[in-house]
Amino acid sequence: MKQQDLKPALMDLGFEIKSIPTSLFKYTGCNEKDKESKLGTLKSKEVWLSFANNLNDPFEGLSLYVDKLKLEEHSSGHEDINEVYKGLKGLGSVMLVGSFAASNLKEDMPLWAHYAYDHKGYCLEYEVIDNTYIYPVLYESRRHLATKTLSDFLMDAKKLRATEESMERFLVIWSSFMIKHTVWQYEKEYRILKYEANKDKSDLAGRCFSEEELGLKLKSIYIGEKCPYKNELIEIARERGCETYQMVLNPYEGEFKLLTQKI
Predict the structure, then answer these.
(1) Where in the chain are the domains?
(2) Beta carbons of 215 and 191 less than 8 angstroms apart
(3) 3-state secondary structure at position 206
């Protein structure tokens, strides 16, 4: 069943959801160890999503927090308090995340360095066909106190109870995966979010989804300035009918910028 687009409901609750770009960029690192799997995913028209608790930021999904004293007021006992803590920490194991950028390829050297293995990887440009799963990241300086919201939501889930209020609580919890600290603001990130219990314990890191299911279509491949897999990427682009560009430094310009050269 297709996941519901939650953006209108989030806006009704007061979240500022900006429009989704028509193209998004995914910076990808690649080395000999993971080359086969990453290039294989690209060939098979799939996109890897990671469970949030496997991402590099330890605060992923934890933009909400609880006040222990207030939690004790809203809970019926020590067991309920532990359940809220456990539920808060466990959210990252059921939310799949794919990170993209609204990128200026010529100037985003930090993204090339951090996420494309020091320019040794590549960047994929996707056309957005359907933005149902895509959400903008909201950058904030502080976490949000949500003691009663979390406590009541987990109590509803425990009792298999669905009400209008529990839906609002779910939206607040969902938004926690859209919020990051302002230190990450330079990334201009958009995310694919999919809620899914991790049933296959053989792979706890995440799993692949087809581009079509996620509403994406590969448009271009940009090859990092130091990428050793240029020939393989050119061949994949040829097979998939998309454009290929080489990122290069411009030796004749005073600014620190990259150039894109069509291959």
Answers:
(1) 7-262
(2) no
(3) strand
> What does the alpha-carbon distance between residue 201 and residue 198 come to, in Å, rounded to a whole number?
7
According to DSSP, the residues that pair with 191 across neighbouring strands are: 99, 135
Amino acid identity of residue 166, one-letter, is S
182, 140 Cβ separation under 8 angstroms = yes
Task: Give a three-class secondary structure readout of 96-157.
Answer: EEEEEECCCCCCCHHHHHHHCCCCCCEEEEEEECCCCCEEECEEECCCEECHHHHHHHHHHH
Which residue type occupies 141?
A: S
Which candidate, 213, 186, 196, 176, places its Cα nearest to that of 45?
A: 213
Most confident of the following: 100-104, 146-150, 210-214: 210-214
pLDDT tens, position by position, 221-247: 999 999 999 999 999 999 999 999 999
pTM across the whole model: 0.85
What's the distance, Cα to Cα, between the start and end of the chain in Å?
A: 40
Closest CA to 71 of 85, 83, 81, 86: 81
Lowest model confidence (mean pLDDT) among 72-81, 133-142, 186-195, 253-262 = 72-81
- Indicate the DSSP class of residue 94: T
Please name which of 58, 57, 74 lies closest in space to residue 66, comparing C-alpha atoms.
74
**Tokens representing residue 163 in the block:** 């009400």
